[in-house]
Amino acid sequence: METRIKIGVSRCLLGDRVRYDGGHKRDPFLTDTLSIYVDYTPVCPEVEAGFPIPREAFRLVGDPEKPVMITSKTGKDITDVMEKWSQRRVRELEKESLFGFIFKKDSPSSGMERVKVYNEKGMAEKKGVGIFAGIFMQHFPLIPVEEEGRLHDPILRENFIESIFSLKAWRETLSLRKSMAYIIDFHTRHKLLIMAHSVNHYRLMGRLVAVGKGRPISEVYREYEALLMEALKLKATVKKNANVLQHMMGYFKKDLSLYEKKELNEIIDQYRREYIPLIVPITLINHYVYKYEQGYLRKQVYLNPHPIALKLRNHS
Ligand code: SF4
Q1: Which of 72, 106, 109 is the best mutation target for the ligand 1 pocket, counting ligand atoms within 8 Å of the beta carbon and taking the most?
Q2: Looking at ligand 1, which residue's alpha carbon is closest to its atom 6?
Q3: pTM tops 0.90, yes or no
Q4: Domain boundaries, the chain
Q5: In whole angstroms, what is the distance from residue 239 CA to residue 275 CA?
Q6: Which atom of ligand 1 is nearest the CA belonging to 107?
Q7: Which of 107, 138, 175, 222 could make a disulfide contact with 111, Cβ separation 3.0–4.6 Å?
Q8: How far apart are CA 125 and CA 238, in angstroms?
Q9: Which residues contact 184 (CB under 8 A, 6 or more apart)?
Q10: Contact 291, 182 (CB under 8 A)
């Protein structure tokens, strides 16, 4: 069953003029590129909680672990309003079955990390979390989240997009009748992708799948999902990807000619040294998969985890 990916997003990032000064913070990657593949659920905590446009800017003050939100000129405490509204909104968002959330960085309402928190002397430390973002992450600990600023980092961007596409595949599996056979199939197809994030998680998930038959199936699904989302939060680094590429070479042992082996080894090495982007060895391996009809690798999601037009593997 084909599922459309639905992502929550801080509304000003879509170009809506909802900021305190009547402006927006449109992010072209979100509005022009990612929007082709996903549907957005825009959320502006400040406007939805009843504050006008334009409005006084807000700020966090006090203990970075439990800050208070105030209006920056008149010093009015609006923490209670924002917290109560956020608790209500996250319960509403449960119905949306979101695959992820992209937050506006630095915002006292929407920032995911490193938000300024001011002390009584008016000095700021970047140690806070926006009120809505914090409540969202507590309520949905497994849903992939990112900030638009961090999405400009190519590795973090690929990580996030890969997580939401993997969650899509997992939810499609969930939409089928619950059966160990479907988990095993998912696990087999995602082997290399999971390994690129965490070999340790791949092993734990493998163990869970192996002993799953003797346990209540809903429990196995729940634990598998938690491990999957935990694994995907860990970055797929160059070193981990290079190990997976090397592992894939093993499947062609009997097929590749000496020249082809040498060429593939060299290309993996150049990728490991960060001279060329991941897309180069992946394209060559995809070519060999078709040339030598490598059925097992052909099923590996790792070789095509998200639409190529997003160009996520073109960086070195
Ligand atoms: S950062 Fe959040 S609260 Fe501020 S305008 Fe954007 S969506 Fe609204």
Answers
A1: 109
A2: 12
A3: yes
A4: 5-152, 153-316
A5: 13
A6: 1
A7: 107
A8: 33
A9: 209
A10: no
